[in-house]
Specification:
- The protein has about 260 residues and is α/β, with parallel strands linked by helices.
- It folds into 2 domains: about 1-135 and about 185-255, Alpha/Beta hydrolase fold, catalytic domain (Rossmann fold, 3-Layer(aba) Sandwich), CATH 3.40.50; about 145-180, no CATH class.
- About 40% of the residues lie in helices and about 20% in strands.
- It has 9 helices and 8 strands.
- It has helices at about 45-55, 80-95, 110-115, 145-155, 155-165, 170-180, 190-200, 215-220, 240-255; strands spanning about 1-10, 15-20, 25-30, 60, 100-105, 125, 205-210, 230.
- It has an 8-stranded mixed beta sheet, sandwiched between helices.
- Helix 1 (about 45-55) links the parallel strand 3 and strand 4.
- The protein is globular.
- The protein starts with a strand and ends with a helix.
Amino acid sequence: MSRRHFAFDCLGSTLAATLDDAPGVAGLLIVTGGNETRAGAFASQANLAALIAATGHPVLRFDRRGVGDSEGVNMGFRHSAEDIAAALAAFRAQCPRVRRVVAFGNCDAASALMLMGGAGFQGLVLSNPWTYEDDQADAQPPPSAIRARYAAKLRNPRELLRLLTGKVSLAKLARGLFSATKRSAPSGLAGAMATGLARFAGPVRILIAERDRTGQAFLAGWNAHDPRLRRCAGADHAYSDDGSREWLVDEVLAALTDE
C-alpha cells in the first residue's frame, strides 16, 4: 500500500485528492461530510483509508470545491454531485484496473450520494444519513431519539437514583415524555433522498450508529424493516470507540465484495 496526493479538475476548479493505492480491482471512494477535509475528524477518514488499503483495496479521498485544499466555491452537499462524479472519474483514471467502485459517506455525504442516485458507483455504504432541512440543524431531536435517550436513562441505576431523590425536574421529564409520544413527519430532503436511492440498482448498506442523533432522525422517517439497514449498538456519529471502528471496517470490506 502506498499513499500519494494529486489534483483533478471539476468544472474548472482544481480539487485535492489522496489515493491509498493497492492492487485490488474493487476500490473505495470516501465522500466527506459537512465541511470537513478529506482527512476527516481526528484523521478518521485517513485512518479508515489506510485500514481498507491494507487489505488490498485502493481508496480515494478528496476535498470538494471550496473545502480544504480545493479551489472553487463551497455549494454544500446538495450541490456536490459534480464533485463526486469528477472524483470518481479521477479515481478510475488513476487506477484503471479497478472494475468496481463503492462509495462511502457519513452524515450529509451519505445524503449527497442518495440524492445523486449513486450514479456511476457499483455499491453504496450510507452512514447516518442527514435528513434535517437546512433550517433545522438546531431543531429538537425526533421522537425516536427522545425515546431512545429516556430508555437508556431508565436502564441506568444512577439516573433512577437521581429521579428517586428529587434531582430530576418532573416538569421537564413530563415534557420529554410527551415529546416522545409524537410522530415526526419525514422532511422534504428525506423524500428526495429516498427517490434518489430508488434509482440505484446496486447493493446498498445503510449503517446507523445507535447513539447518534442524526442516525436516529433518519430512522424516524425510514422503513424500519429495510433489509439494507445495519445498526451498531453503542456507536456514536464517528464510530470513535474501538469496537465501533472495527464494525465499520467490517461493513465497508463486506460492501467491497458485494455483487
